[in-house]
């Protein structure tokens, strides 16, 4: 696509993100179903999907709510799951940090795993992109994913109970994260952090209110950062 057309990079981002709809749609449907079965009404389900727009954090918070966890634990769990967004933001700052505040605010709202993963890969392979071109591509990645997340959440909340169990919508959760995480395990630090989170989360799975997840997330980040620092020092 030619850069002479301002819309070309927007549609390129949308095209690159389109395959993720195969897992985003059932993921959102599943959230609508589970949230409704957990007792949330339609307004609450859609409020959560529109305001949070972070599937993993929504599922984690919902699990805590079903378990009658204190509000502080619900918030802490959701924040722990979404701590990776802070790292995503730091990673994107060299590419988007010079944008006006209102554009950065919108970018932060639509930042999800897919928009980050596609955009950072594009920026690294095409370093000659201007700021406006980077923004067009970034926002383009969410043209389909954002609206479809809302629509599928709504459908799941409205007709979720009528969806046959044989459809096994819950397959979308692990497949989505495997598809996104596997290509990102490019360095020893990434692998160490991932391994730490899995091992610690399994060992502490019995802790109440999902506290093991919070500990696993904190330790994983610490281990990943420590390995990264060690690797930097070891380089000649």
TrEMBL record:
The keyword Coiled coil does not apply. It is found in: Cell membrane. The chain crosses the membrane at residues 45-62, 69-87, 137-159, 171-193, 199-227. Keywords: Cell membrane, Membrane, Transmembrane, Transmembrane helix, Transport. It holds the Pfam family AzlC. Its main location: membrane. It is a multi-pass membrane protein. The keyword Mitochondrion does not apply. Belongs to the AzlC family. This is Branched-chain amino acid transporter AzlC. The lineage of its organism: Bacteria, Pseudomonadati, Pseudomonadota, Alphaproteobacteria, Rhodobacterales.
């Amino acid at each position: 696509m030619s850069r002479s057309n301002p819309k070309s990079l927007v549609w390129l981002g949308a095209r690159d993100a389109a395959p993720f709809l195969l897992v985003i749609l059932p993921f959102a449907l599943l959230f609508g179903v589970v949230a409704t079965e957990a007792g949330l009404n339609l307004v609450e389900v859609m409020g959560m999907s529109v305001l949070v727009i972070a599937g993993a954090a929504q599922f984690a918070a919902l699990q805590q709510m079903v378990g009658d966890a204190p509000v502080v634990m619900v918030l802490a769990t959701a924040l722990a799951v979404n701590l990776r967004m802070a790292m995503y933001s730091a990673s994107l700052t060299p590419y988007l940090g010079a944008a006006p505040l209102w554009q950065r605010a919108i970018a932060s709202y639509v930042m999800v795993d897919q928009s980050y993963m596609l955009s950072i890969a594009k920026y690294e392979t095409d370093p000659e992109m201007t700021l406006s071109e980077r923004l067009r591509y970034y926002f383009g990645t969410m043209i389909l994913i954002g609206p479809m997340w809302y629509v599928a959440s709504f459908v799941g909340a409205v007709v979720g109970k009528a969806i046959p169990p044989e459809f096994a919508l819950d397959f979308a959760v692990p497949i989505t994260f495997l598809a996104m995480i596997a290509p990102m395990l490019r360095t020893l630090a990434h692998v160490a952090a991932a391994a730490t989170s899995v091992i610690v989360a399994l060992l502490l799975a019995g802790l109440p209110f999902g506290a093991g997840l919070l500990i696993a997330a904190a330790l994983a980040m610490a281990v990943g950062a420590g390995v990264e620092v060690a690797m930097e020092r070891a380089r000649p």
